[in-house]
Write a structure and sequence with these properties.
By secondary structure, the protein is an all-alpha fold. The protein is 65% helix and 0% strand. The protein has 22 helices and no strands. It has helices spanning 7-11, 21-28, 41-52, 58-69, 71-98, 104-131, 140-146, 159-178, 181-209, 216-221, 227-230, 235-242, 244-249, 255-258, 266-294, 314-327, 331-364, 371-374, 385-399, 408-433, 450-467, 484-506. Helix 4 runs antiparallel to helix 12 (235-242) and helix 5 packs across helix 20. The longest helix has 34 residues, at 331-364. The chain is globular and about 65 Å long. It comes from Vigna mungo. It is a multi-pass membrane protein. The chain crosses the membrane at residues 42-62, 68-88, 126-148, 160-180, 192-211, 272-296, 333-362, 383-403, 409-433, 453-474, 480-501. It is found in: Membrane.
């Protein structure tokens, strides 16, 4: 019979007085310390912030969100989404403080749902997280502007070359993640300063360089639908779709939870990193949106297929118009686009780190095929290198359809958001309905506030997942159809079928790997 130690029992073990509080809690939960616990709070915050990234979410979807209903809904949408994101982050911070484990979301779901529903909750949450793997995108605009722009004979990267760049970046991320986590942590410290300093440069410089800026009334109050381009004439529906850029950008803060077994004092520093990354991205993200929107020179020209960026890269066009308008060259725009591209690179690196920890934790609990392979650690660096390369292979496979399907990025964006954010819902709902006497709080504890906070967080997650299943363009045909519901339905259907036919017989959730006595968990 597997039992775990109480804090009282631990205190009686000689030499245990200096044990890290999070390591002690990890032992209580039935896990021994295997990964190196050498991450500081700032390094964990850096990785969490890099996973969210300042530019990665906003840049690809800014143009489409602006086109749906104009600037007002885009600008205020960020405020609304940030407000509700805090509820989700606070709910997750409390759970992270109580369960500082690498398995994070699915581990939380298993323990919070209780012995009856724990295995099923854990199974659903684990696979939602896995389905939420994300792909990076963002080099085409740099190539186009660097080679003369669309008007000047610039090189517009074909699909096969874009796929090669995508695969190359994925391999680079995997190689870097094969080394010690300390290397990744140092890179992510560079990342946080890259994005903060780069973000400040863009936010301050762009409106100053632009020959003219839009009025405050245009930015904060102007509504303008584009039914001829989007096929959407309903203002409420257009406003809902314009929020997508914010909902896509404001998640990923659970990366701090995935690193809790490698973070010193994770029961305290994990929640700080989660909430800190939300706070930083909320402020800088809104500032970035405002800088872009105020700096628009000609709203209609942004979507002209004959403009310098072929009407496909609105943020790049805004940068080009500002610098070319004042200096008659695009060098400044290219430099700032490299700052944005760096954010994509750092984000992909951090996401690979986070995804590998999920696969490692799930493999440790025998929840994926060939678990014995994916749970192995690098003998020297003590990182889950096999899990890293499995994640890289899956990401490459996800990108292959881009050769034939035009809406791959939209579909992957939706699947990624639904899978990743949907995974948050399972432990938060379990925390909402569980009996308080069965919960052992950590240093970050909500007390009586947990029920209303968890309720708002859960409802917001359900709403977010729903809107990413909606059609984004009309009329609906093979080129405009949102494939996310079909792809997600097939994936979740297979996972549920696996559960019903086989997995429910052997998958019991997190598997303890420590065999010591305990009074209470």
């Amino acid at each position: 019979m597997l039992l775990v130690c109480s804090e009282r029992n631990f205190a009686e073990v000689p030499g245990d007085t200096t044990m890290d509080s999070a390591e002690k809690r990890l032992n209580e939960l039935g896990y021994k310390q295997e990964l190196r616990r050498e991450m500081t709070m700032f390094k964990t915050l850096a990785i969490s912030f890099s996973t969210m990234t300042l530019f990665t979410g906003i840049t690809p979807l800014y143009g489409s969100s602006l086109q749906y209903a104009g600037p007002a809904t885009l600008v205020w949408g960020w405020i609304v989404v940030s407000f509700f994101t805090w509820f989700v982050g606070i709910a997750m911070a409390e759970i992270c403080s109580s369960f500082p484990t690498t398995g994070s979301l699915y581990f939380w779901a298993a323990h919070l749902a209780g012995p009856k529903w724990g295995p099923f909750s854990s199974w659903c949450c684990a696979w939602l997280e896995t389905i939420g793997l994300i792909a990076g995108i963002g080099t085409q605009s740099i190539i186009l502007l660097s080679t003369g722009t669309n008007k000047g004979g610039g090189y517009f990267a074909p699909k096969w070359l874009f796929l090669c760049m995508y695969i190359g970046l994925t391999v680079i991320w995997a190689v870097l993640n094969t080394f010690a986590l300390e290397v990744i942590a140092l890179i992510d410290i560079v990342s946080i300063w890259w994005q903060v300093i780069g973000g400040l440069v863009i936010v301050i410089m762009l409106p100053l360089v632009a020959l003219s800026t839009k009025s405050a009334s245009f930015v904060f109050t102007h509504l303008e639908l584009a039914p001829e381009s989007t096929g959407i004439s309903s203002k409420p529906y257009a406003a809902i779709l314009s929020f997508l850029v914010s909902q896509y950008s404001l998640y990923g803060y659970d990366a701090a939870a995935h690193l809790t077994e490698e973070t010193k004092g994770a029961d305290k520093n994990g929640p700080i990193a989660i909430l800190g990354s939300i706070g930083i991205i909320s402020v800088f993200g809104w500032a970035y949106i405002l800088a872009l929107t105020f700096s628009i020179q000609d709203f209609g020209y942004l979507y002209d297929p004959n403009n310098e960026t072929a009407g496909a890269f609105v943020p790049a066009q805004i940068l080009y118009d500002a610098f070319h308008g004042r200096y008659h060259n695009s060098a400044g725009a290219i430099i700032l686009l490299f700052v944005i591209w760096g954010s994509f690179f750092f984000g992909g690196l951090s996401i690979t780190t986070s995804a590998a920890r999920v696969v490692y934790a799930l493999s440790r609990d025998k929840g994926v095929p060939f678990s014995h392979l994916w749970r192995q650690l690098h003998p020297k660096y003590k990182v889950p290198s096999n899990a890293v390369w499995l994640c890289a292979a899956i990401c490459i496979l996800l990108g292959l359809p881009i050769l034939k399907v035009n809406v791959v990025f939209t579909a992957i964006t939706s699947i990624c958001t639904i899978g990743w954010v949907g995974g948050y819902a399972v432990p938060i709902f379990a925390r909402l309905v569980m009996s308080e006497k069965n919960f052992k709080p950590g240093p970050f504890y909500l007390g009586k506030a947990r029920r209303p906070i968890c309720l708002v967080a859960f409802l917001w997650i359900c709403y977010t997942c729903s809107v990413f299943l909606l059609p984004t363009l009309y009329p609906i045909d093979w080129d405009t159809f949102n494939y996310a519901p079909v792809a997600l339905g097939v994936a979740l259907g297979l996972v549920m079928l696996w559960w019903l036919l086989d997995a429910r017989k052997w998958f019991k959730g997190p598997v303890r790997n420590i065999d010591i006595q305990n009074d209470k968990v």
